[in-house]
Each structure stands twice: as C-alpha cells, then as structure tokens.
Amino acid sequence: MHLRLRGEKVEKEVLKQAAEKFGTPIYVYSLPKILSQIELVKSTLEGVNYSLAFAMKANFNQDLLKLFHSLGLMIDCVSIGEYLRARKVGFSPSKIIVNGNCKKREELKLYVDEGIFSINLDSYEELIRLEALANKPVNVCIRVNPDVDAKTDPHIATGLKEHQFGVDYDTAARMIERISKNGNIKLIGLHCHIGSQIVEVEPYEEALNSLKDFVRQMNLNIQVLNIGGGWGIDYGDGKSLNLKDYKKRIVPLLKDFNVKIVLELGRFIVGPAGYLVARVEYVKKTNSKIFVIVDTGMTHLIRPALYGAKHRIIPLYDTLDREETVADVVGPACESSDVIRKTITLPLPREGDLIAIGETGAYGYAMASDYNLIPKPLEIIWDGKMLFRSS
Ligand SMILES: Cc1ncc(COP(=O)(O)O)c(C=O)c1O
Ligand SMILES: N[C@@H](CCCC[NH3+])C(=O)O
C-alpha cells in the first residue's frame, strides 16, 4: 500500500489504525514528519557553521532520542534525569549540553568528570559553585539574558530581565573576568534562549544584535554561540516562524559571528509530528451546554490548562451526516480546568468516535502527570510504513 506521508487523509487513516490496534488514548509520532522538520532546519541554515541539538524537554521518548542520536544531533538537557537518559540512549558526553538554573553540586561534578560539550552557566553563584569542584578542564558557556521581548505567550518567554534564567550583561562581564583567572574552567561561548513558540524574527534579530555588541565591547574570543531554541510552529491559527524571513534576516547575522552556532530546538522538530488520539466516551447535554467527554485531558496534555493553549481537534469520524455544534471538549480529571477546547464548533461526535489532538509531539507526553491516577497514554511510532509501540 502506497501512503502519502503528509496528506491529511493518510494521517487520519494511520491514526485510526493506531487507535484500533493499540486502543486509546495514545500519542502517535510520525517519523517522516520529524525527518522533514529536520530537513527544514537544514535548508534554512544552509551556509551556516552550526550544530543542531534536540531539546529533550520537548519529548524524552527513547526511540525518538535514539533516532536523533543516529542522525548525529547533539542533545540539550535540563536535569540530571535528562542527562542520564541521554547517556543511556548513546549520546557521548561531548554531544551533551546542560542548561538549567538549579544544577546541584553532585550533578555539576558528574558533568565535569564526564567532560560534556558545555555546562551553560545560569548565574554568578553557579560559577562559584563550579569553581569549587572543577578539578579538571571543563567547557562552559554563559547564559545571557538580553532583556528582549520574544513576543510569545508570556508563560513561555524567558529572555526578559524579570525571568529567572541567565544573567545580565554586567554580571556576564564579571563572570568572564573571573573565569579568565581559572585554570580549569574554559569559556567556549555564550548562550541565549529568549523563549519558546516564537513566530516573529525581530526578537531573534534584537537578541543577536545585542549579543554582537557585547562580544565586541568585551573583545571576547568565543568559539560557540548557542542561540537556544524557540522556533514557533502552526497550532492551527496559521502563525509560525517564517523560515524565509529567518533565512533572509537572521542567517546573515549568524554568519557574521564567525563562530560555531548551536541551536537547541525542541518544539519545531517534534511538535508537528505528534497527535494525541482519544475516544469520545460521552456526549453530555445540559440545559446550557454540550460537553464532549473524551478519554484524555490535562493529565496527558497540560498545555491548554496551563497556558490556555489551543490545539487543533481533528475528527477521525465520518463527519458528513453530523450537525455542526458548539461544545466544550473536556477530559476525565476532577478539575474544571480539564478542558481541551472551550466553545469549539465541530461536527457533533457520538460515543465511540475518535478524535486526534494535533501538534502534540512537543511538551505533550513530556509534561504528562499521574494526577487522579489516570493511566498515561501509550506512545506509538509511525515509521512511514508501520505502527509500533514505543518503549
Ligand atoms: C534553554 C532552552 N533551550 C531550548 C529550549 C527549547 O525550546 P523550543 O522547544 O521552543 O525549541 C528551551 C525551552 O524553551 C529552553 O529553555
Ligand atoms: N512547556 C512549554 C514550553 C516551555 C519550554 C521550556 N523552556 C510549552 O508547552 O509550550
């Protein structure tokens, strides 16, 4: 059977097959889609001296991590748990970047002992902590907070001075001075991540220009500029990072630095490749509302409850004879916030129908919880030909 990989029709068939075979709820990840996202990164950054790291926080599925490892990607970790998982699936320390504002002493010690690509220092205080235990050479970047508005949802912005991540330029200058006197700590570069789901190029432009000024003022000799992640995807509202603009306006700035550029992309690589497939258990009609109650919700996908995020709801049932209705699609948790989409117009489903929640490959399963002891979904992989259950 020949399958078109990106056609909506085929996707729906695959998702239905997956639900029949494995039950619901399930996350389904499409490998061809992940590969095509990586190709988009490559074509956008053509001519740039760069390394792509996958930001594990978006999705820590081991089969996907093994794929990224086999493709030669680097990996960005934000906790010891992620670090150990990266090691387990085969990443060598030299391919691992560690971020985060709360690295414990024993964790820093492990990173020093194993010799990772870079510890991205999040504070002056962390540098002091590292000095006390760096008994052999260790590479670091300083995470700079450039006080730039990423123009994204305020919940997921990180580059303003009110945010807890990174240091201002004055502090970065003091850290550079201090590092220069240390025999073991080697400053290889700067790091800057201003936020996630960024759909405009201006914030990147602003951040890069301010970093460039800093590098010039300090007469800083760096080998690496890590510009974090943040590339925004289309959640169904037609807004996403315009890659043509990025190529035109950001790529020349990146080349100008004349150093190795590192990107830590999460959402862009896996977000569009994931679907959360659920079954309608009840269609509950009250005097004032219709609730479509499905067997997944905030414990599997917390983004709507946490950020008010809107994900596409894709009917996998035959919609021809169904009346368009306004309803709230809600989950099974004992929380009024367990609403996947409020007042959405959709062809009224029936008990037993399947729906898919789109663009859930990033920050979906990774943020799932055991709340109410509702079992977590299985993760299913579609390799373009076959569906299989992921470990
Ligand atoms: C330091 C850092 N790097 C990379 C990422 C990945 O971001 P995204 O998934 O938006 O590409 C994040 C998350 O926002 C982050 O905090
Ligand atoms: N978890 C967030 C993004 C935060 C990224 C980590 N800094 C989301 O679902 O959009």
Automatic annotation (TrEMBL):
Q: By its UniProt entry, which InterPro entries does this protein fall under? A: Ala_racemase/Decarboxylase_C (IPR009006), DAP_deCOOHase_LysA (IPR002986), De-COase2_C (IPR022643), De-COase2_N (IPR022644), Orn/DAP/Arg_de-COase (IPR000183), PLP-binding_barrel (IPR029066)
The record's section on Gene3D superfamilies has: Alanine racemase (3.20.20.10), Lyase, Ornithine Decarboxylase, Chain A, domain 1 (2.40.37.10)
Show which residues constitute the signal peptide.
none
Query: What residues does the Orn/DAP/Arg decarboxylase 2 C-terminal domain cover?
Result: 27-361
Q: Which residues form the Orn/DAP/Arg decarboxylase 2 N-terminal domain?
A: 33-271
Q: What is the E.C. number?
A: 4.1.1.20
User: Which GO terms are recorded in the biological process aspect for this UniProt protein?
Assistant: lysine biosynthetic process via diaminopimelate
Q: In which pathway does it act?
A: Amino-acid biosynthesis; L-lysine biosynthesis via DAP pathway; L-lysine from DL-2,6-diaminopimelate: step 1/1
Q: Which sequence positions carry the modification called N6-(pyridoxal phosphate)lysine?
A: 57
**Cofactor(s) recorded in Swiss-Prot or TrEMBL:** pyridoxal 5'-phosphate
Where, in this chain's numbering, is pyridoxal 5'-phosphate bound?
230, 264-267, 363
Q: Which CDD domains match?
A: PLPDE_III_DapDC (cd06828)
Keywords assigned by UniProt, alphabetized: Amino-acid biosynthesis, Decarboxylase, Lyase, Lysine biosynthesis, Pyridoxal phosphate
The active site of this protein is located at 334 (proton donor)
Q: What GO molecular functions are on record for this protein? A: diaminopimelate decarboxylase activity; pyridoxal phosphate binding
- For the keyword Oxidoreductase, the answer is no
Provide the reaction this enzyme catalyses: meso-2,6-diaminopimelate + H(+) = L-lysine + CO2
Q: Where does substrate bind?
A: 267, 303, 307, 335, 363
Question: Which purpose does this protein serve, as stated in its record?
Answer: Specifically catalyzes the decarboxylation of meso-diaminopimelate (meso-DAP) to L-lysine.
The record's annotation in NCBIfam families points to:
lysA (TIGR01048)
Q: How does it assemble?
A: Homodimer.
Family in the record: Belongs to the Orn/Lys/Arg decarboxylase class-II family. LysA subfamily.
Q: What is this protein called?
A: Diaminopimelate decarboxylase
Gene name of the encoded protein? lysA
